[in-house]
TrEMBL record:
Organism of origin: Hallella mizrahii
UniProt cross-references to PROSITE patterns, sorted A to Z: PROKAR_LIPOPROTEIN
Domain Minor fimbrium subunit Mfa1 C-terminal span(s) in chain numbering: 419-492
Protein name per its UniProtKB record: Minor fimbrium subunit Mfa1 C-terminal domain-containing protein
Lineage: Bacteria, Pseudomonadati, Bacteroidota, Bacteroidia, Bacteroidales
Keywords noted in UniProt: Signal
Length: 496
């Protein structure tokens, strides 16, 4: 995928096998060998990534020269692998040979020495191949339980929302890079009689490039500590009512602090090898299992559901997910932000826990102020402020006691927003800026997505999916999305 520079190096020399038939890690097809087929070949496999800079850089549709980000040891280590030789293209050809190197075999022979170029070279004994036949070569790193056709095989998240089973420290699943600019089927090898000599192994036409099958979404960062004024261009496009609402928010808000975040629409399934359509668009399995933490699981426009989806930004770690592509906003992978708003004044406020309201685009801490203001005419609640607080909002010891069902009924009945404990929410769709498809939202494998909130113009919704109709246009959040390919680095590995 993306012209990304992953440098993988290692040397595997499986001399522990006294004969090729004694190696339990060798798998062959069920087809009977022909007279031209002989056992006892050797093959040298080199695995690495594209060049980050210079004349060897390979420009692809999703090419990213920089910035790149070095992977951690947990993200880049290769502990096992499977080599595939196909007669024809994977996905439609015939599997001629498969060799799996177990974690035990790999780790037992590991030499703790870092190579100069970080490359991995593997010398493997090969069986059941035909002299003079060209085979296409594919490599799966750290993959377990994969079928014989990795081109069409899929992996599933199982019962975990984040794909930790494929992103364990030192066990990230990786496969041959495959995108419109760098196809996985370009690597070939042809065996001759002299390749039966381990000192004269067959070699690939070029080193195989591999990439992780998962994307990484980092913990968000924040530069916004208070509300700021929109740009002159944005102000010019606003109505008088919108400008008044923004000014009212700035007049009332003392500070705004990012406390928690959540990610929605996490794909449950992906291909082992990345798939693209004939016209160059990323495709996902047609029998996809859908998403974890879907948009609607976060609630309605007036109710919050599943608050446990949110986690504190402090101490949080990156999340690993499968790639996603969709033309539907509500299916796009997105990040929710939860901010704590502190107002400049809580004098005579209805609540002592920071709860406040927004009515007709303006902020209030007292229902009585809404009722008594001549601006609103008749009492919009049909009750006194104390009755509403007692009966509808169930105020107890100065704190909001109503559950989400009661709050939803209150919001809908009176077209008002109520912010429990001063929490407000924003939602930002995540988009890969290097792969663009008109009116689609996509995140791609082997890529880091890092969101940084640059500025906030107004307080958000009172629930994650909230908008209350006309209020939608009053939410303004400027987010900078950093999209970085990983650079893979690993140490030399020699198997003897």
């Amino acid at each position: 995928m993306k012209t990304i520079h992953y440098l993988f190096t290692a040397m595997l020399a499986l001399s522990a096998c006294a004969s090729f038939t004694a190696c339990s890690s060798d798998d062959t097809t069920d087809s009977a060998p022909t007279p031209q087929t002989a056992d006892g070949f050797y093959m040298t496999l080199t695995i690495k990534g594209t060049e980050a800079n210079g004349t060897n850089a390979k420009a692809t549709r999703t090419a990213v020269q920089e910035p790149t980000e070095a992977a951690t040891a947990d993200e880049s280590t290769v502990n096992s692998g499977t080599l595939y030789l196909f007669s024809g293209v994977v996905g439609s050809g015939t599997l001629a040979y498969k060799k799996t190197i177990s974690t035990a075999e790999w780790n037992d022979a590991k030499v703790p020495a870092q190579g100069q170029d970080g490359s991995i070279t593997v010398k493997l004994p090969i069986k059941n191949v035909t002299v003079g036949t060209s085979y296409r070569v594919y490599f799966l790193a750290n993959g377990k339980g994969v079928e014989d056709d990795p081109g069409n095989s899929t992996i599933e998240a199982g019962d975990v929302k984040f794909v930790n089973s494929y992103a364990k420290p030192g066990e990230f699943i990786m496969f041959s890079q495959n995108d419109p600019g760098h196809l996985a089927n370009q690597y070939t090898v042809t065996f001759t009689e002299e390749n039966k000599n381990k000192d004269k192994p067959a070699t690939l036409s070029s080193p195989i490039l591999i990439e992780r099958a998962v994307a990484r979404i980092d913990v968000p960062t924040n530069e916004a500590t208070n509300l700021t004024e929109p740009s002159a261009e944005d102000l010019a496009n606003m109505t008088t009512q919108q400008k008044e609402a923004l000014q009212d928010a700035r007049d009332n808000v003392k500070s705004i602090t990012l406390e928690k975040y959540a990610i929605s629409n996490l794909s449950k399934k992906t291909y082992i090898m990345q798939h693209w359509s004939d016209n160059g668009y990323l495709t996902l399995p047609t029998n996809s299992l859908g998403y974890w933490q879907t948009f609607d699981e976060f609630g309605t426009a007036t109710r919050q559901d599943n608050p446990d989806f949110f986690k504190a930004v402090t101490g949080a770690s990156a999340d690993y997910v499968f790639e996603n592509t969709t033309s539907l906003n509500n299916d796009a992978t997105a990040m929710y932000f939860q901010y704590k708003v502190e107002l400049k004044s809580y004098e005579k406020a209805d609540f002592t826990d920071g709860t406040f309201y927004r009515y007709d685009g303006k902020i209030f801490t007292r229902l009585a102020d809404i009722i008594e203001s001549n601006e609103y005419g008749n009492n919009p609640f049909g009750k006194t402020a104390d009755e509403v607080l007692s009966e509808d909002l169930q105020r107890t010891d100065g704190k909001l006691g109503a559950n989400e069902a009661a709050l939803e009924a209150f919001r809908n009945a009176h077209n008002i927003q109520i912010f429990p404990q001063g929490m407000v929410y924003y939602r930002q769709l995540i988009q890969d800026t290097h792969y663009t498809r008109e009116n689609w939202f996509s995140i791609l494998r082997n890529t880091i997505y890092r969101l940084n909130v640059k500025s906030i113009w107004n307080i958000g919704a009172d629930v994650p999916n909230g908008d209350n109709g006309k209020e939608t246009e009053f939410y303004y959040l400027k987010v900078e999305v950093s999209v970085n390919p990983w650079v893979l680095n690993t140490q030399n590995v020699i198997l003897k």
